[in-house]
Amino acid sequence: MRRRTETWDLLVDSLVNDGALRTPNVVRAMKQVPRVLFLPEGASDYATVDAPLPIGKGQTVSAPHMVAIMNEALELRVGHHVLEVGAGCGWHAAAIAEIVAPKDAPRSEKGHVYTVEIVAELAQLARENIMRHGFGDRVTVVHGDGSLGYSEQSPYDRILVTAAAPEIPAPLLDQLKAGGVLVIPVGSVHLFQTLIRMRKNVDSGMTRENLGGVAFVPLTGRYGHTV
Ligand code: SAM
Predict the structure, then answer these.
(1) Which ligand 1 atom is at minimum distance from the Cα of 86?
(2) Which of 53, 162, 222, when mutated, tests ligand 1's pocket best, judged by the most ligand atoms within 8 Å of its CB?
(3) Of 10, 41, 55, 111, which is least packed with CB atoms within 10 Å of its CB?
């Protein structure tokens, strides 16, 4: 494990050198939460390869550079109330929790991550990983259709979607706070997708930015693709 952790640190350092990672608390969180801890057996040998990896049920955990790009784009701060759509194995949610609710922050200032997963077996995998690695007080895993958001805990400071939607689901925009940020891949199934950042202005108007081309598994559910 020690050698793997050193190799993970080298990968994170290379993401800093490439410019994918820039903000000290985002870099620290990536180092604190190595991907290997969340991978099923078989995939863990490849944890330090900068590529998506299989997590079962035909789904993948994102590549480290993509998690880095999304976490920087989200402009995360301590205390943020965050919704992730697509929990997968729980790794990305844990890396965000390490930014918005670091262990040394006073309890009253800690944020929280709600992560929704549509595949029951993956929701269970994410929940087990989150509990096993000590994130149970900072991350809540919900089994359900995250294309509808998770209105029970809305509004959110930040929302991220880790699967590509045909269009931005309206419930996610509704569940974003004024001043909040949503990061989401939008496009067709597997090809021609763009990472979009939406900012909800204080007057509730929206600003849309194109952050570049990406390749994600499709978002399913009510506002997702029919696959
Ligand atoms: N963030 C994850 C991690 O750290 O492992 C990786 C996410 S994987 C690229 C995308 C995930 O989105 C898959 O697990 C898939 O089942 C899930 N997904 C797709 N459509 C969904 C929906 N409507 N609601 C919730 N999860 C969904």
Answers:
(1) 12
(2) 162
(3) 41
